[in-house]
């Protein structure tokens, strides 16, 4: 019997490689490997494959048509988010789309780390220490446990953030399309407007879609507390970057910690140290002492990388076999 054949784009041998080798053998899958993302020129590698596995490369209608002509049955993204894939085009060409799942601890703990670093002005402290400036002026932080934390989105990651935060003693507010009974043990559900008005720290943990694009904008920021801390480990498009910059420069927002930003897809996971950044807003944000910017790596733990590879390959295997696929999103 012929092995299922999957083309893996965005393949990284230094971290995913061991897992792909081990899990593909366990699942009896043949892999075609490409270290770069799918493009019009590289897509031919997927010939004779039933599925492709990607990370965050945008798949637009043109690439979707090319995949259709190659006979691809499914695109599996090794990420929870799938907003980089044109779902309407996938539906048009009858191509399934699936995402990945992984342990929620990585992103949840990273978000809490960013909250605490922001509250204690850690970026500014480290910048000074690097030049042997050990003075105290301007570095006084805030008592973390006294800060009211608002969690927008109580899916699996949001729930884990709230559960882990409960040990610090913070007042916790939550807002979500769907309420979770377990969350109510540790947090109070309120409306989005109330959460925005009452929170000292606001942390985003919701998927991005048309309904919440730029949910953090000039109007919502105006309703926030002065010196609010904003944390985003979800999707960059949840925040209007122009409004964020204005609020940081005016002092309305006291600090921001961003693992994701708008228009990051051509930047993150690439070595650009000798290049001029094409995203001007990213360059500006990185220059502020009260803004922490990291390259979309809150998920990046050994357990999570394993889980991403496994769920992507297993999802493809189920789709090829015509079996129920819990990772399918369309």
TrEMBL record:
Domain spans labelled D-isomer specific 2-hydroxyacid dehydrogenase NAD-binding: 112-298
Pfam families the UniProt entry points to: 2-Hacid_dh, 2-Hacid_dh_C
Residue ranges the record marks as coiled coil: none
GO molecular function terms listed in the Swiss-Prot or TrEMBL record: D-lactate dehydrogenase (NAD+) activity; NAD binding
Domain D-isomer specific 2-hydroxyacid dehydrogenase catalytic: 28-330
Keywords, comma-separated and alphabetical: NAD, Oxidoreductase
Keyword Ribonucleoprotein tagged: no
Taxonomic superkingdom: Bacteria
Family per record: Belongs to the D-isomer specific 2-hydroxyacid dehydrogenase family.
Protein name, per record: D-lactate dehydrogenase
Biological source species: Propionispira arboris
Lineage of the organism: Bacteria, Bacillati, Bacillota, Negativicutes, Selenomonadales
């Amino acid at each position: 019997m012929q092995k299922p054949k999957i083309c893996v784009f965005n393949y990284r041998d230094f971290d995913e490689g061991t897992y792909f080798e081990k899990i593909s053998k366990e699942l009896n899958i043949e892999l075609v490997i490409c270290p770069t993302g799918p493009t019009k020129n590289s897509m031919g590698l997927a010939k004779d494959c039933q599925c492709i596995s990607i990370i965050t490369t945008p798949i637009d209608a043109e690439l979707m048509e090319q995949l259709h002509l190659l006979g691809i049955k499914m695109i599996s993204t090794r990420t929870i988010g799938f907003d980089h894939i044109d779902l309407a085009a996938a539906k048009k060409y009858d191509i399934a789309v699936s995402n990945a799942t992984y342990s929620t601890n990585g992103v949840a703990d990273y978000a809490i780390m960013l909250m605490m670093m922001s509250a204690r002005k850690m970026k500014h402290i480290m910048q000074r220490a690097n030049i042997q400036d050990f003075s105290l002026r301007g570095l006084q932080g805030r008592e973390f446990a006294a800060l009211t934390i608002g969690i927008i989105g109580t899916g699996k990651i949001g729930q884990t953030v709230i559960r882990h935060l409960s040990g610090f003693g913070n007042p916790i507010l939550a807002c979500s399309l769907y309420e979770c009974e377990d969350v109510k043990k540790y947090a109070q559900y309120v409306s989005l407007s109330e959460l925005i008005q009452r929170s000292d720290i606001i942390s985003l943990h919701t998927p991005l879609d048309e309904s919440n694009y730029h949910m953090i904008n000039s109007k919502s920021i105006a309703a926030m507390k002065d010196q609010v801390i904003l944390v985003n480990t979800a999707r960059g498009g949840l925040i209007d970057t122009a409004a964020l910059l204005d609020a940081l420069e005016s002092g309305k927002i006291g600090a921001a910690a961003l693992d994701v930003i708008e228009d990051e897809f051509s930047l993150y996971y690439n070595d650009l140290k000798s290049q001029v950044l094409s995203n001007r807003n990213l360059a500006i944000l990185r220059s502020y002492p009260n803004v922490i910017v990291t390259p979309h790596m809150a998920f990046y733990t050994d357990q999570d990388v394993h889980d991403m590879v496994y769920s992507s390959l297993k999802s493809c295997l189920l789709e090829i076999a015509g079996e129920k696929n819990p990772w399918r999103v369309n």
